[in-house]
Amino acid sequence: MKYIFTVLFLTFLSSMPAAAQKNSYSLLLHWYPQAQFAGYYYALEKGYYQEEDLNIEIEFGTVTDPSTARIKTGDFDFAIMWLTTAMQLKASKVPLRHLAQTNQTSALLLVSHKGRGTDRLEDFNGKTIGIWSGDFELQPLSLLKRNNIDMKVININNSINLFLRKGVDVCTAMWYNEYHEMLSAGLREEDLNIFRMSDYGMNFPEDGIYASEKLAWNRPGVCRKFIEASIRGWMDAFNDTEGTLDILEKACAKAGVPFSRAHQRWMLNCFRELLIHPRTGKIETALPAHAYNFVGSVLLERNFIKSIPPYETFIATL
Fold first, then answer.
1. Are 285 and 100 within 8 A, CB to CB?
2. Which residue, 122, 114, 249, 117, is CA-closest to 182?
3. pLDDT by residue (tens digit) across 205-233?
4. Based on C-alpha coordinates, what's the Rg of the chain?
5. Is 310 helix (H, G, I), strand (E, B) or coil?
6. Looking at the domain 2-105+205-314, which fold is it?
7. N or C: which terminus of the chain carries fewer CB neighbours within 10 A?
């Protein structure tokens, strides 16, 4: 009986595709399918990972099952995270390594209605500001503190409804997401003041590609291939807008989440500007040490970490 089972098992293995037997890895996104992750879905759909002999399965975190919970257990191969999130995990001894910094520029904004006494940063004193909790609060609260601005902070729970109803004077928004929701709700760009964190000395690199420390140490070649295929996916996704939106629509349908072609088109165009360097026309992937240390200093200032993990232990050597 044992012999028969062994033969059957070996026969099953021999019938499996080579990619399913080896080089199978997961890519864990920190949110549902959307154009924020277009390059990875495009690379998967077009077979770029398979061309590198990588069998990639894309998974994602949700409201009830955040990706950080899984990363803390070490149950991941590759992951997309904000730099602030990764630094906090690293500071708490989670074994991960940074592979590539795709987003060098922060897309976080402060938005206010024009003509309501908040047209300049110095006008914010004494006003109300709606802020999401967690990592999203780091930049705006640090900005206010460094400019000696005192505001009443209201947690808006990832919604812009209070701002739309003018229940708060200033509101946080991601350029590629909530800002477009404001416009879709009927607000006009010419009626809004935009304060980009990147313009006010609070630029945080955001999405980056990470790997488990074990994978980065033991299979650097796999990590290099994954980065190369992913960057290729991003560049081609930007050059194939309609095809990319088709791929995202299919991914959203599979995940059971709503899909708005107009909103995803806006998001994809924003990421084209965020990722592609205006001078080189390429996606720069290095994380500068000065940017890393600046983010670490704000995390320390806000008591999100007790010490900044050494840069050398954070960056993978590929």
1. yes
2. 114
3. 999 999 999 999 999 999 999 999 999 99
4. 21
5. coil
6. D-Maltodextrin-Binding Protein; domain 2 (3.40.190)
7. N
Convert 35-69 to b/e letters by CB count within 10 Å (16 or more is b).
bbbbbbbbbbbbebbbebebbbebebbeeeeebbe
In which element (H, E) is residue 172 found? strand 170-174
Using DSSP, how many helices (H) and how many strands (E) does the chain show?
A: 15, 10
pTM above 0.85, yes or no: yes
Q: Which residue has the tokens 């006010």?
A: 200
Token pair recorded at residue 54: 């990588």
pLDDT, residue 64, reads 82
Q: What residue type is 287 in one-letter code?
A: L
Domain boundaries, the chain: 2-105+205-314, 108-199
Long-range CB pairs of 157-160, under 8 A, 24+ apart, other chains included? 157/132, 157/133, 158/132, 160/130, 160/185
- pLDDT tens, position by position, 66-109: 899 999 998 899 999 999 999 999 999 999 999 999 999 999 99
